[in-house]
Amino acid sequence: MDAELLTAIETELSAGKPAMLATIIDRAGSAPRGVGTSMVVTTSGTQVGTVGGGSMEFHARKDALALLNDGICEIRAYGIHSDSSGDHSGNVMILFRPFSGEAGFALCKQLREAIETGQNAYLVCQLLETCASESSLLFKDALCAACGIDCVPEEATVSGGESRWLIEPIQLAPRVILFGGGHVAQCMARQLELLEYRIWVAEDREVFAKQELFPMAERVLLCEYTSLQPLLHLAKRDHAIVMSRGHETDEQILRWLLLSDVDYIGCIGSKRKIAQIKENLLATGIPQEKMDRLHAPIGLSIGAETPAEIAVSVAAELIKYCSER
Question: Mind listing the pLDDT tens digit for each residue in 295-319?
């Protein structure tokens, strides 16, 4: 459950209408989206989010509307059609959960508070044969005991065992931190906005550390890179892209960034520049296993030259990385 889907549900409830949350709980074969992928369907038939598109999503949206009108929670199976022959290339199971009335309002309020305060909270429900128990919000400390699991998941999952639980972390979209605010960074921010990332920009030059250059960014920080780290509150889900004003500042940033827990670290530059930076960092004590986390030179090899093309190549690499984890 992310903030966009929650907002869609809240909007409907505020208008006195119910909303249906449709969530993939299992997939097999060539299904395009994984467990935890959701969409919201309203009584007017509008949709927010996607569970994979195509004819499968068309039928799922139609079923969601019918179930919503009756206020029914249900699990249904759908085939993914590979071509016009009607053969299935994959299958998904979708759980339909209606949100309505005071109970829906109360749960949405809890979800909103968890998102806005950054708490380790999870939307959970027990999966039954053809439906699910009522969804509730659990915090990290209570989750394992309640759902019979050994450790808390970082991504949406269905627990195994005799009792199956759908467990969905309640969290903001992943954050990408752009270190540098130049022309490539400005194009990069526009690409990341399309991918629905939260964007932060850090820059030590006043001329580029301007919110008007990055209207989509949550934060634009004007700060010396040597004193920047405490302002970022780095987390494991963060992605970092280093494209500062030069070799020296890139190296300054990477020296502490590589020792952090951020999920992805990339740096723009020529092969010669990157080789020199790596050599310098290893010489100053950065362990090789930490250096191996660095994606550099960043970007898929597509012949990119302009800032916009480079931004596309970097975004494509980030998509590839996230899909292969």
Answer: 999 999 999 999 999 999 999 999 9
Partnered with residue 121 across adjacent β-strands are 139, 170
Backbone conformation region of residue 53, classed left if phi is above 0, alpha if psi is from -120 to 50, else beta: left
Buried b (16+ CB within 10 A) or exposed e, 99-121: bbeeebeebbebbeebbeeeeeb
CATH number for region 175-324: 3.40.50.720
- Structure token pair of residue 123: 């939307």
pTM for the model stands at 0.73
Report whether 56 contacts 80 (CB < 8 A): yes
CA distances from 289 to 51, 119, 258, 269, 312 (A): 37, 31, 10, 21, 28
User: Using alpha carbons only, how large is the chain's radius of gyration in Å?
Assistant: 22
Place of tokens 């906005």: 193
- The domain spans of the chain are 1-171, 175-324
Q: What does the pLDDT read at residue 161?
A: 77
Over residues 238-284, the pLDDT tens digits come to: 999 999 999 899 999 999 999 999 999 999 999 999 999 999 999 99
Q: Phi/psi at 303 (nearest 5 deg)?
A: 75, 25
3-class SS string, the chain: CCHHHHHHHHHHHHCCCCEEEEEEEEEEECCCCCCCCEEEEECCCCEEECCCCHHHHHHHHHHHHHHHHHCCCEEEEEEEECCCCCCEEEEEEEEEEEECHHHHHHHHHHHHHHHHHCCCEEEEEEECCCCECCCEEEEHHHHHHHHCCCCCCCCCEECCCCCEEEEEEECCCCEEEEECCCHHHHHHHHHHHHCCCEEEEEECCCCCCCHHHCCCCCEEEECCHHHCHHHHCCCCCCEEEECCCCHHHHHHHHHHHCCCCCCEEEECCCHHHHHHHHHHHHHCCCCHHHHCCEECCCCCCCCCCCHHHHHHHHHHHHHHHHHHC
